[in-house]
Amino acid sequence: MNKAEILLIDDEPQIRKLLDILLVGNDYKVIHAATAKEGIMMAANHSPDLILLDLGLPDKSGHEVLKELRLWYTKAIIILSVQKSESDIITALDSGATDYLTKPFRTGELLARIRSSLRRNQTKSESSTFVSGDLQIDFVARIVTVNGIQVKLTLTEFNLLALFAKEEGKVLTHQYILKEIWGIGYQTETQYLRVFVAQLRKKIEMNPNQPFHITTESGVGYRFC
Fewer CB within 10 Å: C terminus or N terminus of the chain? Predict the structure, then answer.
């Protein structure tokens, strides 16, 4: 039995039943909440390993629930919602969501996102090195190698890559990346970010036109896989 416990906060009985069958069938323990109030209470009482949160709850907006949870809950929160506008997705991600899937979703993709988020929970404690396929990052020595060959990065390129690696699997919005790397005054400079991502891809990707490590989330930001 998978020891990971998942809290599902959704007011639709059909969705809860579908996800219960899916998740239990993949060895997860599942607990349910149909309202915002119940969900926040269960999150506090159970401290689940991951939360699946719907934005359209009957008693309070899922965006408000997300902000409340992020005052103390530090593990993964994946949004499942029919709301698919870029503004909704960006707002949720900037408020602390780990990931965002729109309904209807593919069950295989949801399971993959859950696995990725749970891995991120387990590896969130700082490590001196990071390895992903042919890419290796030594955070202490600030050395990056691809297929064992050292790659020369500028200070900004290294900081950008380190941010991606430490947030592996999570969608990072343009605004979040710009604020973290360049500061609050650069949050609208998306073209500036695109230039640096393109430069970084040329140095670490086997094929920069079909990136393996740094993938684009159209209109939202980037994900490091």
Answer: N
